[in-house]
Amino acid sequence: MNALLSRNRRWCGAAVVLLLLLCFSLETGCASSGRGVDSLKAIQINVGWKMEAYRQANIFRQVTQNQQQQVTQAYDSYQRAFQEAQSASNGNLDVPAPPSVVSAANQLLAVLGAL
């Protein structure tokens, strides 16, 4: 019985990883929607769910040490740019994202998309 439960957990974990990788492959690319400049909030959401998918893949050991370092560097750059923009907008996430945030988000998404 325990062996059956263990095997089912492994299959479930593998299925989750495959679904997350499918999400990566279908929705990687630029941070903006193509409708012009997105808000800080829209970019935060776009980056946020892709980072969550990355974290889940990392939990299942699908990411190498080198890939982790690349993501960490790109994410740190994105976070700095986002926090500066958020501070400049007095916390208003509905303002258009400045080029620095869009560029940093696109760089991060490119790194995540290459995994």
Mean pLDDT: 80
Helix count, per DSSP?
Answer: 4
Written as H for each helix and E for each strand, in order along the chain, the element string is HHHH
Taking the alpha carbons of the first and last residues, their distance comes to 36 Å
The helix fraction, in percent, is: over 70%
Beta percentage is under 5%
- For this structure, the quaternary state is single chain
Notes on the protein architecture:
Helices cover 73% and strands 0% of the residues. The chain contains four helices and no strands. Helix 2 runs parallel beside helix 4 (99-113). The protein is elongated. Mean pLDDT is 80; it is low at 14-29.
In short:
73% of the residues lie in helices and 0% in strands. It is built from four helices and no strands.
